[in-house]
Amino acid sequence: MKRFFLKAICAGAGIVLAGSVGVRADLLYQNTTTQTGSILSGFVNGQQIGEEIWLGTLLPEYLTNFSFEYYSQDSSWSGTVTADVRFYENNGVLTNGYASPGTLFYDSGAVAFPNPISYNASPASNTLTAFFELSDLQSLAPGVTPLDPNFALPTNFTFTVTFSGLTGDESVGLPIFEPPGYGTNYGDYWYDASGTWQLLTNAVPVAFGAEFNGSVQPTPEPSVLCLGALGGAALMAMARRRQQRG
Q1: Among 35-44, 141-150, 153-162, whose mean pLDDT is lowest?
Q2: How far is residue 56's CA from residue 154's CA, in Å, rounded to a whole number?
Q3: Which residues contact 64 (CB under 8 A, 6 or more apart)?
Q4: Which of 39, 116, 152, 193 fits a disulfide with 173 by CB distance 3.0 to 4.6 angstroms?
């Protein structure tokens, strides 16, 4: 069974990968506060790695924006490294007794990611945050499966990332965080490199750094965004108890 390895990481810094009109609403899931000092590393091109989360919300929510953190120890990449971010409903075949990722409801397509190493920063950093705003999620660009503005998030779903463009011994990984302050994850992760999902664990619980925000109202169409007709919503903080699979 494939098992990735954990390594120590340096302090992180944020970067906006996709600049666009932002919509801020309810905080649905947040796991970006406390790094454990480890990363899930050893990724190669074409491996799809993700985490199943549970929102635990009582009302239907519509995704407005999303972010996650990634890591590399390389001082530079020889070519363009891309990441493909996908969201799935967990309605697929049972794996270890749990429903695997099934119906796809968002696919970013290949997005070019900058190398996070910055020796000009103080302190030097090798962790960055990738932000996906509403216009990114609803993009009609080639290769993108856009998020339907009328799609209410399931309380249980999986987000994944697939890196490509790494050469030689270049590497990339995902920092590990303490249990989330909002929402729940299960301490394991989904892995697919050949068309079959596996549910894997490590010696310590795995929780990737990610944040999801949403609205109780359907999100506006991209054309409406261009007109600037965006509604605000009050921030709601719903603490949930972390669970692990037994």
Answers
A1: 35-44
A2: 9
A3: 23, 24, 25, 134, 137, 213, 214, 215, 219
A4: 39
- The residues, any chain, with a CB within 8 Å of residue 220's CB and separated by 6 or more, are 134, 149, 229, 230, 231
Query: Distance between CA atoms of 124 and 195, rounded to whole angstroms?
Result: 38
Which pair of structure tokens corresponds to residue 111?
């997005």
CB of 51 within 8 A of CB of 208? yes
Single out the residue of 128, 131, 110, 2 nearest to residue 73, CA to CA.
128
pTM: 0.81
Q: Where are the domains of the chain?
A: 18-226
Q: Give me the DSSP letters along 91-107.
A: -S-EETTEEPP-SEEEE
Burial class (CB in 10 A: 0-12, 13-18, 19+), 211: buried
Tokens of 237: 């903080």
d(CA 40, CA 116): 16
Peptide linkage before 123 cis (omega within 30 of 0): yes
Q: How many CB atoms lie within 10 A of CB 155?
A: 17
Q: What are the structure tokens assigned to 4, written together?
A: 């990735």
Query: What is the radius of gyration, based on Cα positions, of the chain?
Result: 17
Q: Which two tokens stand for residue 164?
A: 């490509």
